[in-house]
C-alpha cells in the first residue's frame, strides 16, 4: 500500500522532500513482467558503487535544507545479491545524523537481510517485498521479519521498462481506465517519490525511476543538484501530464519511457533525457 503521507501529499500536490533513492546496480535473478526498470537475470551484480559519496552528500544537503532527517530508499535490481554492500550502507545510515531510516526493496529470495536488521534495529529499517516473487520460503521470512518487512502492494501500474504500455499484453489499470490524466494515480508522481542516484549511469533523476529527466550527474555538486531538483519538481510534472494528455497515452510515465529510451543494463551516457527536453514536450 502507498503510505498515507504520500497519498495525502499527492492529493495536495505538494512535494514530500523526505527521501532519496539509490541504486548501485540493476542486476536481478528474476524477470517480472511489470519490471519498471527491465532488470534481467544472468549476470552477477557488478556495477561500480560510484554514487555512494554523492548520495550521502545529497542526504546531508537536503536534511540541512529541509530541517528533517531523510529516508534512504535502496533498490535495484535485487540489492541482496550483494548483501555485504547493503550491510555497509546500513552502517553508514546507522552512523549518519542526517538519515532517519533505510528502506530496502527486495524479493527476500536472495540472502536474508537479518544482518541488516541487526545493524539498524527495527526502528531504522523497513523492508518492502516484491509480491510477484513470493513463495513459501518468502512467506516464512516475512513472518520472521514481522513489523519490519511487508509486501509492497502498489495500487497502480508503472508504465516503464517491461511494464511499458507498448509491450504485448499490457492492461490498463483502474486509474488509467477511469481517471483523467493529471489526477493522483494517473499523473506524474515525481513530487511524492524522491530523486534517484543512479550508480550504473552516473546520473541523478527527477523521480525514483531512471527513465525520468536528469537533474545532475556525478560531476555536479550536491547543492546544484538539489537546486535543479526543486526547479524540476515545480515544472516537470505539469509538462509531462500535458504531454500525456495531448498524445492520448495511458500514463505520463510512458512519456518518460519513450523519450529517455532507457535501458537498465546500459552503461554511462546511454540516457541523456534532460529537464529542458521534458519541458519542451508540453
Ligand atoms: S521487479 Fe524487482 S524482482 Fe522483478 S525483475 Fe524487476 S528488479 Fe527483479
Ligand atoms: S512521468 Fe516521468 S518524472 Fe513523472 S513520475 Fe513518471 S517517470 Fe517520473
TrEMBL record:
Membrane spanning residue stretches: none
Keywords for this protein: Iron, Iron-sulfur, Metal-binding, S-adenosyl-L-methionine
Cofactor list: [4Fe-4S] cluster
InterPro entries for the chain: Aldolase_TIM (IPR013785), rSAM (IPR007197), rSAM_sf (IPR058240)
Example of a GO MF term: catalytic activity
Entries under Pfam families matching the protein: Fer4_12
The name this protein goes by in its record: Radical SAM protein
Lineage: Bacteria, Pseudomonadati, Bacteroidota, Cytophagia, Cytophagales
Amino acid at each position: 500500500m502507498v503510505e498515507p503521507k504520500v497519498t495525502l501529499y499527492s492529493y495536495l500536490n505538494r512535494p514530500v522532500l523526505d527521501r532519496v533513492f539509490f541504486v548501485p546496480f540493476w542486476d536481478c535473478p528474476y524477470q517480472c513482467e511489470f519490471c519498471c526498470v527491465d532488470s534481467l537475470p544472468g549476470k552477477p551484480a557488478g556495477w561500480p558503487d560510484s554514487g555512494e559519496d554523492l548520495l550521502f552528500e545529497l542526504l546531508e544537503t537536503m536534511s540541512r535544507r529541509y530541517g528533517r532527517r531523510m529516508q534512504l530508499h535502496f533498490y535495484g535490481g535485487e540489492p541482496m545479491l550483494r548483501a555485504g554492500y547493503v550491510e555497509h550502507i546500513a552502517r553508514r545510515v546507522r552512523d549518519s545524523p542526517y538519515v532517519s531510516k533505510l528502506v530496502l526493496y527486495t524479493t527476500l529470495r536472495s540472502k536474508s537481510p537479518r544482518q541488516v536488521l541487526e545493524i539498524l534495529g527495527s526502528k531504522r529499517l523497513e523492508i518492502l517485498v516484491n509480491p510477484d516473487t513470493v513463495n513459501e520460503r518468502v512467506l516464512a521470512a516475512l513472518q520472521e521479519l514481522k513489523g519490519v518487512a511487508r509486501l509492497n502492494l502498489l495500487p497502480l501500474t508503472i508504465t516503464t521498462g517491461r511494464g511499458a504500455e507498448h509491450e504485448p499484453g499490457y492492461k490498463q489499470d483502474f486509474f488509467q481506465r477511469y481517471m483523467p490524466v493529471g489526477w493522483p494515480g494517473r499523473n506524474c508522481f515525481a513530487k511524492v517519490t524522491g530523486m534517484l542516484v543512479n550508480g550504473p549511469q552516473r546520473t541523478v533523476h527527477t523521480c525514483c525511476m531512471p527513465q525520468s529527466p536528469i537533474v545532475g550527474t556525478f560531476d555536479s555538486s550536491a547543492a546544484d543538484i538539489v537546486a535543479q531538483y526543486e526547479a524540476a519538481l515545480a515544472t516537470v510534472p505539469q509538462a509531462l501530464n500535458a504531454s500525456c494528455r495531448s498524445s492520448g497515452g495511458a500514463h505520463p510515465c510512458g512519456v518518460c519511457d519513450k523519450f529517455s529510451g532507457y535501458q537498465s543494463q546500459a552503461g554511462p551516457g546511454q540516457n541523456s533525457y534532460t529537464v529542458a527536453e521534458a519541458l519542451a514536450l508540453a
